[in-house]
Design goal:
2 copies of one chain form a homodimer. Chain A is of the alpha/beta class. Chain A folds into 2 domains: about 200 residues, TIM Barrel (Alpha-Beta Barrel), CATH 3.20.20.10; about 110 residues, Lyase, Ornithine Decarboxylase, Chain A, domain 1, CATH 2.40.37.20. Chain A contains 10 helices and 17 strands. In chain A, the strands form 3 sheets. In chain A, strands 1, 2, 3, 4, 5, 6, 7, 8 and 9 form a 9-stranded parallel sheet that branches. The longest helix of chain A is centred in the middle third of the chain and has 24 residues. Chain A is elongated. The relative contact order of chain A is 0.12. Chains A and B meet through strand 10 and helix 9 of A and strand 10 and helix 9 of B.
């Protein structure tokens, strides 16, 4: 099975190159800005994994004419016809049909998948258009927190896309790629039969949410936000740090499994349940179940905050400072990786 | 009374210049990056409104040596002493003492304000250090939604800083500036006696939260996110748009007063309560209390989404496209304003 990592998490060519090392180099992106950036960084097989609209086809064509196999996704017959129309001028497209395997986001809902064969016929029948395959994202795996629960979602994911591919093939239409993927299902699936590639993303960094649902261990979180203690408030057993809603994001997905993580926990915290429990734009409110250790954490103390959701927190930054150890105050930055933000 | 707008909302010199038009040009910022950017843009009296720490003093000095009156804030005796020490080398500082007027974020908690006079004495007694005054942010005004409720918070705000200033003056120490401010209290306060400046911020754009609490009318929202319909899902009466958690932010502050706003409402919506009710990174789930008008909103339809909290949503972008009318597809962009993000 091939790996097509979703690089929307890191949005960084340096991380992307590490992710595809030992694999064939195919990747997934979530914006046209990422597609252009990774194309410029040498990536050639790129799946733009958010439902395409006709107005974006010229941007797709622009990269495809440069030799980038930028592939698109649809679940809509009208859009499929627009793609077929756009290809009449001599341009080519490579298209995935998206299946909703139970997550309830994009895709033709399994098991009915209404219109699946109609869309497949329009794409397959259009000169210059390749029906690349079927794809799904089992986003509902994020709401399971046991290997058994995630494995059950993984089996739904597999069944949906393998069934879709079989239906298309039964109609006499090739369906070469059967693409699944999420970090939890890639980690805990017990059967990949029929799947040809997986597209996990957040595994490149991991985060509190992934640790809590069991995709990684508590020591496997590669991303943190460096902040400073800026205030002591003994009358309410809190401190403030200079990292708030913009530095951490307001994503609290991990609270589904552990409300005490707040907007992020303090790495190597000197007291119990130390976390950012509230945020304003540039202020983070740090609380603890223990008395706050003010003596050990004077104003100016640097702390590392582990985020709920790495993809969303990282988006506040235009680069990564790669360090070898924690709480070093920036003294052992060994590399800087860039990022592509925006659209 | 002077206006010292908090430019953390817009983070844009063009907006900043409009905000200070007819006033004396003093502003507030929330990051050192903003301070440098607005200084380069010609602003000379800048309050860095997030509690200062000693490690940031060299950056303050660097701008002050360029003739920028970059002022800082503290509520901590140890920090006050560090500022006094830093001034011994001949550099100058202008410092506000922060008061907690009831919001429970930074500041010496009113009415006790423990250490107020000690901090004032250290700052006033240090050659090269000016005690500029006292300041507060009545953040709790955001949780009121009636003129009376907000006016009550405004009176707490006024009482806290005016009392603090009087205590300092009673100790024989000058306290020239008495600085309050939030958009709701600036709008609904009934008595500004003793206050010398106000620091509202979000009023430059307004947002769903401000509209719901009554700081502005429903037609006063200047900021929106332009997105496209990318999918139709009649089996669950939803659409998807290509604006998700990164484009809108995960701030849901306005849900405190109206849960149906979700992550943002659709401007000029053709059906009832049409809003982004769920977000993944690049997907927004649009729902409505009515049957979804798919026929009027084919794939590719552009929609404008009004955000919960303008300050947080705007931070995902590096510029503003200034348009004259809604839903114009970008055809009447009359200007582009830049922004400073990061720290």
């Amino acid at each position: 099975m091939a790996l097509r990592p979703h690089l929307k998490t890191a949005k960084s060519v340096q991380v992307g190159r590490m992710a595809v090392e030992g694999h064939d180099g195919r990747i997934t992106v979530s914006t046209l800005a990422e597609a252009r950036y990774f194309a410029a960084g040498g990536f050639r097989d790129i799946l733009y994994g958010v439902g395409i609209i006709p107005a974006k086809l010229p941007a797709i064509t622009e990269l495809r004419r440069q030799g980038i196999n930028l592939r698109v996704v649809t679940d809509n017959l009208t859009v499929a016809r627009s793609i077929a129309d756009a290809a009449r001028g001599g341009d080519t497209f490579s298209v995935f049909i998206e299946i909703d395997s139970g997550g309830g986001r994009a895709g033709l809902p399994f098991p009915d998948m209404p219109g699946l064969i109609d869309i497949a016929r329009v794409l397959h029948g259009a000169p210059g258009v390749e029906l690349a395959g079927v794809m799904t994202h089992a986003g509902h795996s994020y709401h399971q927190s046991t290997p058994d629960g995630i494995a059950a979602v993984a089996e739904q994911e597999r069944l949906a896309i393998v069934t879709a591919a079989e239906k298309i093939r039964a109609a006499g239409i090739p369906c070469p790629i059967v693409s699944g993927g999420s970090t939890p299902t890639a980690t805990w699936s017990r059967d990949f039969t029929g799947i040809t590639e997986m597209r996990p993303g957040v595994y490149v960094f991991n985060d509190l949410d992934q640790a809590l649902i069991g995709s990684c261990g508590p020591e496997d979180l590669a991303l943190s936000v460096l902040a400073s203690v800026i205030g002591h408030y003994p009358h309410r057993n809190q401190m403030l740090v200079d990292a708030g809603a913009l530095a951490l994001s307001k994503d609290v997905s991990a609270q589904e499994f552990q409300p005490k993580v707040g907007y992020g926990t303090i790495a190597h915290a000197p007291s119990k349940d130390m976390a950012v429990v509230e945020c304003s734009q540039e202020h983070g409110f740090v609380a603890s179940s223990d008395p706050m250790p003010y003596g050990n954490m004077p104003i100016g103390t640097r702390v590392r905050i582990l985020p709920n959701h790495a993809c969303i927190t990282a988006a506040a930054y235009d680069r990564y400072y790669v360090v070898d150890s924690d709480l070093d105050g920036g003294k052992s930055i060994v590399d800087i990786y860039d990022r592509i933000n925006g659209w």
